[in-house]
UniProtKB/TrEMBL annotation:
Name of the featured protein: Dihydrofolate reductase family protein
Ranges of residues in domain Bacterial bifunctional deaminase-reductase C-terminal: 3-174
InterPro entries hit by this protein: DHFR-like_dom_sf (IPR024072), RibDG_C (IPR002734), Riboflavin_Biosynth_HTPR (IPR050765)
Organism from which the protein derives: Citricoccus alkalitolerans
Domain of life: Bacteria
Amino acid sequence: MRIVITQNTTLDGRVEMLDDWFDPSNQDEDLAAELMRQTEREDVLLLGRQTFEDFRGYWPLQTGDTTGVAESLDRADKRVISSTLTDPGWQNTTVISGDPQEAVLELRAAPGRDVIITGSIQLCHALIRAGLVDLYRMFTYPAWQGRGRGFFPDGYSVPQLRRTETKAFASGVIYAAFEPLAGLGSEQED
């Protein structure tokens, strides 16, 4: 399976939400449709414990969700990396208590489509440093936070990336996907 990080980010590359620049319930129709399109290729949703608990405390309670995200998350094969969580308390969830990198290597070697990781900054940074990410998806919001953890770990030398997709939405959000260039043997297209 392909390992894909999907993050919401600010113009200055911050993914840690310290200000009010992101609201999961306030998405335009085209942005919601893009998220659902990407979910169609998802076989596994992999989350760190904190992001999982944030999702579990929010999405199952969204009874009036018209985007389809709440229902999609309920159905998803969710895996949560945690050394402390024993009962996930959300259907279709498996707790992975072992080495996260080993778990991701096993998922990567398994047949299937995408393993999506979102939020989970500590987990994402570990996977980025280990070179285990096949695709980076960025939903950039028109906001500048000026502080907080970034998409890439501090001090990390980002490899050359090839843009594979871009879209702009009426809300001002811009989506772009990138894959590491190493081994692809092609140039970025405009």
